[in-house]
Amino acid sequence: MKKQRHPLVLLLILLVALSANAQMRNIPPITGKPQIYSPDLLDWKTDFEPKYPDLTEPTSNRIYDLHMQINNCNAFDLILSTSGNYHMALTEFWYDYFLPKHQVKNWFFSTSPPIGYEQTKHQALSFSNVALLCKPHLAVGPKSVMDNLKKAGFMEGEPIPLFTNRGNVLLVKKGNPKNIRSIWDLGKPDITLATSNPFTEPGSFGNYAQSIYHIALHDKGVNAAEKLFQSLFGKGTQKWVTGKRIHHREVPHLIYKNQADASMVFYHLARYFVKSFPNEFEIVPIGGTIAQPAPLKGNKIGKLFIVRIKTPLTNQQRSLREAFVKAIQNRKLDPYLLKHHIDPAK
After folding, report:
1. What CATH number is attached to the domain comprising 326?
2. What is the three-state SS of 135-166?
3. 229 and 181 share a domain?
4. Fewer CB atoms inside 10 Å of the end CB: C or N, the chain?
5. Could you tell me if 213 and 231 lie in one domain?
6. In terms of pTM, does the model score above 0.90?
7. Residues 121 and 85 in one domain
């Protein structure tokens, strides 16, 4: 005789299956076009057509009166191309620990959206009138960047996990004048949402868009989630604004200049924005509290990796690259990450 399952067991199995299905559900297609805001500044002619990738960005990265091109890449002891969302931790580690310990003389690193693949492929990076025609020695980025580097044969060795973030929160103007308390308030007619640009920063935009959809899906189901999502990102939307290139500079500017009412951003970025400009911004948690975030179901947790790039190196460059990797593996970066509300990889 076939043994029957207890109804509570069947209910539990059903709930688990529904939860798994919600986690796997793809977000609806993005059919809307954001309004792309750029400050009303004079657009000076540059010395050359932008190299690719180019990090000129109108709210902060404009270098018109320094004219430079560097082709001798052996002049640099270390070159790092990294996702920029943890730049506050990286720069402290770099100046407080790594440079003094290893006496690095000539170096550069970029803290933009992850461009390790493009920078390696084109052996170039430009800002206005500055061109750095070098491959990076190391690259930091999410799994998608690691996959592209590996597929192209640009990777030396395997990626090393660097950190995970603590999910996303909403950033609003100080005093929260529109009384935004949850993702559902983003659907109100008078609320404009700022995000990273979906074309120039698909990684972070995908994280934010998926989080909005899946948080809504877990909370109120498919119909409500799709209605909210379409109001923000659907055809004809007037509720969505982006910058052009680097959202960890542009999104605060959009809110500061009253071009947007709220933005979904990584928790540690929001903490940095509020610390930098305490009279301009505040945080609305999406699960937990500001001090102790507990991301709601569907709130996507981001993870970054570091990898060596396959490129000819001098003995000095190879030695310093290995010293940097060893410092990561020996947990020397960890205190700086934790200080800025980021969890080191286990």
Report:
1. 3.40.190.10
2. CCCEEEECHHHHHHHHHCCCEEEEEEEEEECC
3. yes
4. N
5. yes
6. no
7. yes
